């Protein structure tokens, strides 16, 4: 266990060394949030609420969705694909840790860094510019914390899954890009899931993606009732468990038929 | 004439390298399509909840998005030199470029083109035709020519801005993240500028004129007469910005000191 915590620490320090890159990142995210703020204000026009969300809740939703993304987002699928292509993965196999756990821990180190140095200051800056409503209830914040931890887990599992696929496809840049589009669209980052037509919503009930962004953002904006919050957390928890199975299966098969290209 | 011949040599060479990895190219085109679809889905879902976006209907917004894709595709194919700083300045590749017999910017465009982005034009035109038919737009004989002029204007706006940003590297080779920011600001131009506040509208019209890539030229085809002045300024602004950027580039080249070995 200690070695994994060390992984988190090293990645965190690595990110800290390049922290100036992140100041401009906050600006980029603010521009994105700004664009959506104006767009949504125009969409609302003089409607009081759409699908149970007021315009201020919507702005809050967009802002928190982008800022939470900084925490759960990582590129470990690309890193895994790169290491497989370069043959480095062969060395990783003989090291005394579980490769996928190690990758997850690196992602977590990055996530914690961005949460502290990006999301929190970013959220403060954004809340000065745009009308954003922070919940006063302590329970909302606690539920939100639990929920973004699950977002991280589910998103990372999906990344691991796409990364491990490289063992079978050799070059899967296309798959990685496609996965990104799917997550942007179906996780609720751009649009709350409740805005989609009913048939699309019922399809998404059977997919893990809304556990990534929709659930934590809705919790943060107080868009869910207490019962819905428990249901949503259960949804995230169940998916976090289910996704372990395909990852383990693919990993075992991949180890058996590993072909190292160079290295 | 010489330039055209060189251009087509580079194009045929490019096709050969790309067609060697057909699956890879196909995947790239597919994922471009997916990215374009995301924005379309966004518009469709949003208009499931509202009739008008400050006076613009669903099909008009879709039309603007379709138009935007066409100049953006041309920009992506030829002027997308976002990695100029790293690739040419930091690595000293610019030295090699300067020994070539054609203009340095032209040489870089030849080397960095990504012709598969041109597929975006087809998507864009298809989206426009779909929206145009639903809006019952009438087309005169001169409209296709105006369309071409507007598209070139829009592509030059993007090209001008990115060439100017690339030129900054001649003075300072430190890494900046202005360029990813520009892609995000560019997205503002896809929606009617009257939804933004005055400051942003002014910036999008005169300072970073992304509005001339999407909403202003589209206003002409949508018959929004109160926007015609802006619509017809599109080629003027496009050419103006592009020539300004070439001027800045040329000044920048004289300041280039070389960094490689």
Automatic annotation (TrEMBL), chain B:
Enumerate the InterPro entries for this protein.
Answer: ABC-2_transporter-like
- Which UniProt keywords are listed? Membrane, Transmembrane, Transmembrane helix
User: For this UniProt entry, which segments traverse the membrane?
Assistant: 25-49, 61-82, 115-133, 145-171, 199-221, 227-249
Q: Name one Pfam family in it.
A: ABC2_membrane_6
Superkingdom:
Bacteria
Mind telling me what this protein is named?
ABC-2 family transporter protein
Q: Which organism is it from?
A: Halobacillus yeomjeoni
Organism placement in taxonomy: Bacteria, Bacillati, Bacillota, Bacilli, Bacillales
């Amino acid at each position: 266990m200690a070695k994994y915590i060390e992984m988190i620490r090293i990645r965190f320090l690595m990110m800290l060394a390049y922290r100036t890159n992140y100041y401009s990142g906050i600006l980029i995210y603010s521009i994105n949030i700004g664009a959506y703020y104006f767009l949504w204000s125009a969409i609302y026009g003089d409607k009081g609420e759409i699908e149970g969300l007021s315009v201020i809740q919507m702005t809050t939703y967009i802002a928190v969705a982008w800022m939470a993304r900084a925490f759960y987002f990582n590129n470990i699928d690309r890193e895994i694909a790169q290491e497989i292509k370069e043959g480095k993965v062969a060395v990783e196999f003989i090291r005394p840790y579980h490769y996928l756990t190690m990758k997850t821990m690196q992602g977590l180190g990055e996530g914690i860094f961005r949460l502290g140095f990006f999301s929190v200051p970013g959220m403060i800056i954004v809340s000065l510019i745009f009308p954003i409503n922070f919940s006063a209830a302590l329970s909302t914040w606690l539920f939100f914390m639990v929920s973004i931890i699950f977002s991280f887990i589910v998103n990372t599992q999906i990344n691991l899954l796409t990364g491990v696929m490289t063992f079978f496809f050799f070059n899967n840049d296309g798959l990685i890009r496609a996965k990104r589009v799917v997550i942007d669209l179906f996780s609720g980052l751009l649009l709350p899931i409740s805005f989609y037509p009913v048939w699309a919503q019922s399809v998404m009930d059977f997919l893990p993606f809304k556990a990534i962004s929709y659930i934590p953002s809705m919790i943060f904006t107080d868009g869910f009732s207490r019962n819905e919050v428990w249901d949503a957390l259960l949804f995230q928890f169940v998916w976090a468990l289910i996704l372990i199975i395909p990852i383990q299966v693919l990993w075992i098969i991949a180890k058996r038929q590993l072909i190292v290209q160079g290295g | 004439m010489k330039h055209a011949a060189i251009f087509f040599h580079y194009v045929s060479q490019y096709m050969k390298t790309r067609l060697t990895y057909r699956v890879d190219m196909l995947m790239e085109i597919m994922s471009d399509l997916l990215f374009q679809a995301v924005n379309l889905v966004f518009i469709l879902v949003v208009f499931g909840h509202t009739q008008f976006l400050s006076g613009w209907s669903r099909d008009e917004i879709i039309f603007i998005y379709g138009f935007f894709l066409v100049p953006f595709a041309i920009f992506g194919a030829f002027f997308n030199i976002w990695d100029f700083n790293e690739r040419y300045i930091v690595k000293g590749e610019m030295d090699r470029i300067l020994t070539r017999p054609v203009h340095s910017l032209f040489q870089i465009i030849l080397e960095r083109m990504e012709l598969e982005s041109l597929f975006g034009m087809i998507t864009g035109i298809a989206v426009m035709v779909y929206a145009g038919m639903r809006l019952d737009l009438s087309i005169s004989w001169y409209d296709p020519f105006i369309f071409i002029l507007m598209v070139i204007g829009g592509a030059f706006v993007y090209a001008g801005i990115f060439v100017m940003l690339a030129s900054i590297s001649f003075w300072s080779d430190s890494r900046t993240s202005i360029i990813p920011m520009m892609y995000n600001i560019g997205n503002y131009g896809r929606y009617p500028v009257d939804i933004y506040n005055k400051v942003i509208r002014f910036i999008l019209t005169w300072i970073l004129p992304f509005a001339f890539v999407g909403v202003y030229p589209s206003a002409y085809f949508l018959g929004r007469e109160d926007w015609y002045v802006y619509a017809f300024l599109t080629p003027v602004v496009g050419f103006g910005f592009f020539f300004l950027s070439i001027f800045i580039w040329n000044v920048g080249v004289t300041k280039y000191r070389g960094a490689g070995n």
